[in-house]
Design goal:
Elements lengths: L7 E3 L20 E3 L20 E3 L20 E3 L23 E9 L3 E8 L9 E7 L9 H10 L9 E7 L2 E7 L6 E2 L22 H20 L13 E2 L1
Parallel strand pairs: 1-2, 2-3, 3-4
Antiparallel strand pairs: 5-6, 6-7, 7-9, 8-9, 10-11
Length: 248
């Protein structure tokens, strides 16, 4: 039932154990979201998908890395956490753990596939932390990005950098997982807008939006510095889109 001209396939959070070989015979496929299933292997025919740019296979039962994906010429985003072959042993104590009762959530600042970010204030004054913070409360048990625990680990593993939002603390309770971060000043705005069905994997921008050559150069240099920092900490950020980037 897969259309010949298929470009974008989302099968997140089902009970799929196997995929047909015919999936590798869809040459226009660009986005493939398979997180939260019961896959123990992927078809070898996926090696034929030369236009595939994004693959999410997190939260499955893969015991080996599917190497047929690694030579795909356009693959830029490969998310694979939460599989037996990718288990992490990160020390989660890199920031303090706090109870969810230690803060009050206020207005929603934004949300994505994995959680909702809100402005928050402390129920009791904490002199070692800012008076206002941002709190990301993770959704459910599995999202299109995989398990919330894996995303929290990745955030903590990145450490501190002047071009990253700083992680201050965490909440790790039954049914409640959250990351407490610095609140970004209001003068920061999203650099781009999310992809559309037409652009598929490419960011979109408001009509008439422009930047000077000097501004673009500054952004590129800072993004490059972030990449070097992440890679030095063994973290790969496959979602470094303009719509996930804030600038002032």
């Amino acid at each position: 039932a897969l259309p010949d001209k298929l470009r974008w396939l989302i099968l997140t959070d089902n009970c799929i154990e196997t995929l047909p070989d015919s999936l590798g015979e869809r040459p226009q496929l660009q986005k493939l979201a398979l997180a939260g299933n019961k896959l123990s292997k992927l078809p070898l025919t996926l090696a034929q998908l030369n236009n595939l740019e994004l693959v999410r296979i997190s939260a499955n039962n893969l015991t080996e890395c599917p190497e047929q994906l690694l030579n795909l010429p356009k693959l830029a985003w490969f998310a694979f956490s939460g599989n037996p072959f990718s288990c992490s042993t990160l020390n989660m104590a890199s920031v303090p753990s706090l109870p969810s009762s230690s803060f009050n959530l206020h207005n929603v600042l934004g949300q994505g596939a994995s959680g909702v970010i809100s402005r928050a204030t402390w129920t009791k004054n904490k002199t070692n932390l800012p008076a206002e913070v941002a709190v990301k409360v993770f959704k459910g048990t599995v999202t299109s990005d995989g398990y919330p625990e894996d995303e929290l680990q990745a955030c903590l593993k990145t450490g501190d950098h002047q071009n990253l939002v700083r992680s201050l603390a965490q909440v790790n309770e039954d049914g409640y997982l959250a990351l407490i971060m610095n609140l970004i000043p209001k003068n920061f705005k999203n650099l781009g807008l999310p992809p559309s069905f037409t652009s598929c994997t490419r960011d979109t921008f408001p009509e008439g939006f422009t930047l000077s050559t000097e501004q673009i150069e500054k952004i590129v240099i800072q993004m490059e510095n972030v990449f070097e920092h992440l890679h030095a900490n063994k973290v790969c950020h496959g979602d470094l889109y303009a719509h996930n980037t804030l600038f002032d």
